[in-house]
Design brief:
CATH topology of the largest domain in chain A: Quinone Oxidoreductase, Chain A, domain 1
Low-confidence stretches of chain A: none
CATH superfamily of the largest domain in chain A: Medium-chain alcohol dehydrogenases, catalytic domain
Distance between the termini of chain A: 18 Å
Oligomer: homodimer
Mean pLDDT of chain A: 95
Number of helices of chain A: 9
Number of strands of chain A: 15
Chain lengths: ~325, ~325
Amino acid sequence: MTVSREIRLKSRPVGVPTADNFELASVTLPAPGAGEVQVRNSWMTVDPYMRGRMNDVKSYVPPFQIGEALQGGAVGEVVASNDPSFAVGDLVQSMFGWREAFNAPASAVQKLNTFGLPPQTFLGIAGMPGMTAWAGLLKVAGLKDGDIVFVSGAAGAVGSVVVQIAKIKGNKVIGSAGGADKVAFLKSIGCDEVIDYKAEKDLTAALMRAAPTGIDVYFENVGGEHMDAALAAARPFARFALCGMISQYNATGEMYGVKNLIQAVGKSIRLEGFIVSNHFEHLPAFLQDMSGWINDGKLKWTETIDEGIENAPGAFLKLFKGGNTGKMLVKLS
Amino acid sequence: MTVSREIRLKSRPVGVPTADNFELASVTLPAPGAGEVQVRNSWMTVDPYMRGRMNDVKSYVPPFQIGEALQGGAVGEVVASNDPSFAVGDLVQSMFGWREAFNAPASAVQKLNTFGLPPQTFLGIAGMPGMTAWAGLLKVAGLKDGDIVFVSGAAGAVGSVVVQIAKIKGNKVIGSAGGADKVAFLKSIGCDEVIDYKAEKDLTAALMRAAPTGIDVYFENVGGEHMDAALAAARPFARFALCGMISQYNATGEMYGVKNLIQAVGKSIRLEGFIVSNHFEHLPAFLQDMSGWINDGKLKWTETIDEGIENAPGAFLKLFKGGNTGKMLVKLS
């Protein structure tokens, strides 16, 4: 018998989530049944998109249920197997995050080939956030030679990969982030111009200074004023990849109203929302690109790591306070 | 010597244009010089996009200059020619609207082959507004079988053609317009559901009732609340063709803030602004489609006609008051 602690949704957040919305609980796992494996998680991820699943609304993923353990990406090790396709010690990836251990059908976990990378990178640069960056920049925005690229939330798990892929491709990149540490981080990964949005009164003016001839691609992670600034600075035929709008996820009253959308008409701007699963057919190409760039030393990643399942809610809350640089992770074992 | 009256920009409008922003003036035209023709306009067009040219801002067309005659589409007849390529009586199309007659280099006017249609249709259904509708719906939004289409400003010169092309293609179409006359007109051209936006308190709720399963294509002519309603009602992978946002053209303070743009992320919506000149390579295909549909009786058009150059400013002002059904035109001779 194994005891696993897990984080459950105690109540649906109204506005910014707080620690009170979560509860820590313990469950006892029996030995895995026929066709099942038991996995001890070593890493779990917290991601901004999970905020949406805490609301009781229909979306591209079903909402979390109150009183049940949350879900999300995790990597771990098989500690008991009752299925011939898995052996004790196998490294696996699953959506059974937010818990220390679990039993699941063998079909619900995937063996992880790390290509020599640390396993937690498959929750970040080599996983969903990395693929989101890759697909958004190359497939949705359709990055071309000479494009000037603006990335908001550029120091985050997705943004920092967008910045680096654009630099690998030889483009000029402007990134925005909040605070001196993130500015320094962005400069260290080669971002040509960095806007500290917390230090700017007028984001549009700051973007115009950083990109005096305008931008061709905008990778949107933040929303709100960032969108208005990008529309104002866009050149004709600019393409916007809309990945997320973290500034709006906790809105309780009205959302921020985007005032410059009219500029999309005269400047023939294309804005395209996407979720990474639209692009899963490109997974092999993504893994080939990323492993090559990492092995060549062209791509760096940064992690902010909290430890222990009891600290997972706090790690999640940091995402909305700008508390992470690079990928926010929770180390579980 | 010919006297021509013309409309000049007297002052730049602030907010909604008024009659005071325009002045009527007379000019005397000499006989056309070598390589020139003299044309007497029979029709001129007024279009919403001209409002943008009245501001002193850089855009895809240069601004009108104070004290100079306005410009825009016109059809007329050659009354004197000093160029071998034109003869008196030739029907021509030009951008020398807002005046009764003009001299111009032969290269600045085009002979008009009407394919048996009334010449003023080349300022409407068979001209720029018709091509805007055709390109926006078929090329920008990429209309597909089964798409449910929402068109705002559906009783206007562009919108009414969008509605009819979508019906020819077999799609369900919801149109919005203001007032009972326009509602009746839209029903007469086959629009499946019509929203009288002036009679609705909650445009989103009205759209949800008209399209309970959501919309796949939005053809945007109006902006503001219409955009928020369309985003709310959009189904996954909806495509929005952003043609214009007439509700915002006269804004003096802040523009309306679009609050639902965040829905573009989760629903993978594509919003694409365009201007008709992006699609001029499709002109032959457009003319083939339109002349075929008109000759087969599948496409109808409606005109609102004012007479006399002195009434051209008033005709233009009607566009912003919902004073036109179908194409707004000024008959000059």
